[in-house]
Amino acid sequence: MLGASCVSCHNSHPESPKKDWSEGDVRGIQAITISQPIAANLWSFKYLLLYFAGAGAIGAAVTALQWHQATRYHKMNIDLGQANTEIAHLNEQLKSENLRLGAEIEVARQIQMMVLPTKDELGGIHQLEIAAFMEPADEVGGDYYDVLQLDDRVKVGIGDVTGHGLESGVLMLMVQSVAVALQERGPTDPRQFLAALNSAICRNIKRTKTDKHLTLSFLDFEPDKVTLSGQHEELIVLKADGTCEVIDTVDLGFPIGLDDDIAPFIETRELAFAQGDIIVLYTDGVTEAESPDGDLFGLDRLIKSACSHNTPSATRVLEGILADLKSHIGTQVVHDDITLLVIRHT
User: How many CB atoms lie within 10 A of CB 202?
Assistant: First the structure.
């Protein structure tokens, strides 16, 4: 603190920073004078510091979030990599399983085609000319037909298992096997034959736990007549005189495999079958075949086609009907098995 004597000295000293010292002034402290505009800027500077502090905090938060997201994405990439590895492994297993299943289906298809009557068998039947065609919609079909001959007895069967594919094809093979066994050692009466076949098929259906069944008709041929039994599609008879007859089979039986005992439902019908007469048998894959416009081939169109091709040749009748059918189908995908049988009395 400056006294009176010091004030006089400092005010007169040539190196004194100022000449207006007063008693009580403090010596040795630097004096700072701040103008009003600069003082006002200090308040702005405080807000600027707050801004940078806030920006720094936000930047730190963004950095932390980016790190969290990067860690999360890295984990997701690892999980996706593991999932892709598992999917690739499952695809290999599925490919292997498909190859195995494809091989089994091919074996079933070959067995099914092997048990169909050969051309030599069909050509060796006395007084009958038989032409046959079968085309499964899948690798294995559910349509059935067979020509069974034992001594002078000839029995022709045709049927259609519900659906198509492997299960239907297996049931078709069961029917074929049982029918062959019954033809050789079973009853000759058409009603008893069909009832025994149904009983055996029902037992097998229960074992396999399938829900399949089938329509099935048999024709027992004798000289100049045929006995029809079982429920299936309508029978078309082309007479040698050019007339045509359609036989309904709905009242002649019951679907095979639905009930253990169908004997009460089985009926027979005898038809005259003279020399030159022709019988046309088919499955619903023929009548339900669609055109590209969705129009069904239908029974009426089938009858018209058969009548228009009524010639003294089972093969020509078959080829004519197939040509009309394929023309109707055109480019449309076939969704059901197609079976057609033409039998002519020679």
Answer: 18
Each residue of 53-93: pLDDT tens digit? 666 667 667 676 667 666 776 666 677 777 778 888 787 87
339: CATH:
3.60.40.10
Contact 144, 173 (CB under 8 A): no
Query: Which residues constitute the domain of residue 52?
Result: 36-114
Verify that 270 and 191 share a domain, yes or no. yes
DSSP 249-296: -TTS---BTS-S--GGG--EEEEE--TT-EEEEE-HHHHTPBPTTS-B
Q: Enter the pTM of the model.
A: 0.72
Could you give the CA distance from residue 226 to residue 271 in angstroms, rounded to a whole number? 5
Tell me the β-bridge partners of 226: 221, 271
Instruction: Name the nearest CA neighbour of 267 among 247, 252, 250, 255.
Output: 252
CA distance 322 to 339: 10
Q: Which residues contact 173 (CB under 8 A, 6 or more apart)?
A: 108, 111, 112, 115
Residues 6+ apart with CB under 8 A from 179: 146, 148, 155, 157, 197
Maximal C-alpha separation, the chain: 166
Q: In b/e form, how buried is each residue of 222-248, taking b as 16+ CB within 10 angstroms? A: eeeebbbbbbbbbbbbbeeeeeeeeee
| 136 and 268 together in one domain | yes
Same domain, 187 and 331: yes
Query: Could you read off the pLDDT of 90-142 as tens digits, one per residue?
Result: 878 777 777 777 776 777 777 778 889 999 999 999 999 999 999 988 767 88
Considering the domain architecture, whether residues 88 and 201 belong to the same structural domain is answered as no
Are 124 and 109 contained in the same domain?
no
> Does residue 311 sit in helix, strand or coil?
coil
The verdict on residue 335 lying in a domain is yes
